């Protein structure tokens, strides 16, 4: 598994945006990049730079995705019929770790990846510990019985900073989530503007 070794919020400061919409983000206090040169005036970014930034932001948002895995997801999105940028968002949101995060079972996408890896989740009654597992419409994701009393679950379901999107049906009393449908870009509650069309341009150069 690839792992984000640098501090999570470094991405926020580099982008100058609160990527995950978290109250503790340093961008809420100062909106410039990290390091001694963070406050320098930035020149106009090239098309390549803009595309690269859009890719880094989208890839970083989903936590521990490696470049190899992210490119593979793009290639699958391009292979499918329809709009590649919409397909890309649909695939990213169909990941098991993304669904666990979106359904408010855990507080962060990083915690979601760890929660799944530690074997706390069943998909359609089968224990699944792969964060990148792609769920299908109608799949039922459930926290395993022995894990339902974990403090992280109880605290996360009570967080007021985000809501469960309507493409998921979550019953927090039973710790069960149903994946109702594959979302498009406008269905996903990103705290910042994501530009998957620029990610497609980056990879299709």
TrEMBL record:
<dbReference type="GO" id="GO:0015935">
    <property type="term" value="C:small ribosomal subunit"/>
</dbReference>
<dbReference type="Pfam" id="PF00163">
    <property type="entry name" value="Ribosomal_S4"/>
</dbReference>
<dbReference type="GO" id="GO:0006412">
    <property type="term" value="P:translation"/>
</dbReference>
<dbReference type="InterPro" id="IPR005709">
    <property type="entry name" value="Ribosomal_uS4_bac-type"/>
</dbReference>
<dbReference type="Pfam" id="PF01479">
    <property type="entry name" value="S4"/>
</dbReference>
<feature type="domain" description="RNA-binding S4">
    <location>
        <begin position="94"/>
        <end position="158"/>
    </location>
</feature>
<dbReference type="InterPro" id="IPR002942">
    <property type="entry name" value="S4_RNA-bd"/>
</dbReference>
<keyword id="KW-0687">Ribonucleoprotein</keyword>
<dbReference type="InterPro" id="IPR022801">
    <property type="entry name" value="Ribosomal_uS4"/>
</dbReference>
<comment type="function">
    <text>One of the primary rRNA binding proteins, it binds directly to 16S rRNA where it nucleates assembly of the body of the 30S subunit.</text>
</comment>
<feature type="region of interest" description="Disordered">
    <location>
        <begin position="15"/>
        <end position="49"/>
    </location>
</feature>
<dbReference type="GO" id="GO:0019843">
    <property type="term" value="F:rRNA binding"/>
</dbReference>
<protein>
    <recommendedName>
        <fullName>Small ribosomal subunit protein uS4</fullName>
    </recommendedName>
</protein>
<keyword id="KW-0689">Ribosomal protein</keyword>
<dbReference type="InterPro" id="IPR036986">
    <property type="entry name" value="S4_RNA-bd_sf"/>
</dbReference>
<comment type="function">
    <text>With S5 and S12 plays an important role in translational accuracy.</text>
</comment>
<keyword id="KW-0694">RNA-binding</keyword>
<keyword id="KW-0699">rRNA-binding</keyword>
<dbReference type="InterPro" id="IPR001912">
    <property type="entry name" value="Ribosomal_uS4_N"/>
</dbReference>
<dbReference type="GO" id="GO:0003735">
    <property type="term" value="F:structural constituent of ribosome"/>
</dbReference>
<dbReference type="GO" id="GO:0042274">
    <property type="term" value="P:ribosomal small subunit biogenesis"/>
</dbReference>
<feature type="domain" description="Small ribosomal subunit protein uS4 N-terminal">
    <location>
        <begin position="3"/>
        <end position="93"/>
    </location>
</feature>
<dbReference type="InterPro" id="IPR018079">
    <property type="entry name" value="Ribosomal_uS4_CS"/>
</dbReference>
<comment type="similarity">
    <text>Belongs to the universal ribosomal protein uS4 family.</text>
</comment>
<comment type="subunit">
    <text>Part of the 30S ribosomal subunit. Contacts protein S5. The interaction surface between S4 and S5 is involved in control of translational fidelity.</text>
</comment>
